[in-house]
Amino acid sequence: MKHFVANSQENSRSESNSQVDQRTLWEVYYPPFQAAADAGCAAAMCGYNLVNGKYACDNEDILVRDLKQSMGFDGWVMSDWWATKEFAADEGLDQEMPGNTMPFDPAKFTDDNLDTLSDEKIDAMVTPMLTKMLQYGLFDNPVCEPPNCKDIETKTNATNAEHQALARELATQSVLLLKNEKGMLPLGAGVKRIALLGSACDATHDIEGMLRDWARGDYYAVGGSGRVIGASPVSVLAGLRAQCMRRGCEVIFDGS
Questions:
Q1: What order do you get walking across the sheet with 2-4 strand by strand?
Q2: Which terminus has fewer CB within 10 Å in the chain: N or C?
Q3: Does residue 140 carry a catalytic annotation?
Q4: Pick the catalytic residue: 38, 80, 119, 151?
Q5: pLDDT for 100
Q6: 154-174 CB burial, b ≥16 within 10 A, e <16
Q7: Residue 27 and residue 150: Cα distance in Å, rounded?
Q8: Which pLDDT value is given to residue 10?
Q9: 3-class secondary structure, 186
């Protein structure tokens, strides 16, 4: 689960300071993480931002007090790439993301730094990793071994009918109608012609192009590590036309 926590913007994400009081954290930001922890999530990834003046991956208040103690999260905490600002094992960070070393940002979880920790502390950091890997059968049924994981990462079908039904329900419930002049919505039986304007209403979905480029996204999916590529997303135009076929209305589309 990621990013923990209050990492709500991409612009200047490594310099932004999310100032959030405890009530707001627990009522607004923490519930999805609490639900994931309760469901047995194995790992949490801390974000790039500061939370109340302290970087998320070096922040004992949110990683130890809130996540591990108050939420009862029994997995491990890993950093995102280049999100580790100091050697923060005592602050609740269990793993620095591998490949984190850059000339401008050297690794923090070095052998020398790890040697300063007691065996008990090392055990406390490693045990959740091995426990979750055993719990979910990764030793008995390994999915892949790096670096031979590209097809698994990009082409695995990670959904099912139950997940799709839940996603549709969440998307439907999340719609907020801000304006409805003359009660036009929902569309009544008397509506016979609908104008649909804008190229986004009929955006293309280049799956093969996205599979070739890890960072590439489109109207239906973001690029990067958070990307989930839908197999057959329905455009606004296609969805509206399908409805009009059943209702006897016409869609006039201008994608310019």
A1: 2-4, 43-46, 76-79
A2: C
A3: no
A4: 80
A5: 66
A6: eeeeeeeeeeeeeeeeeeeee
A7: 38
A8: 81
A9: coil
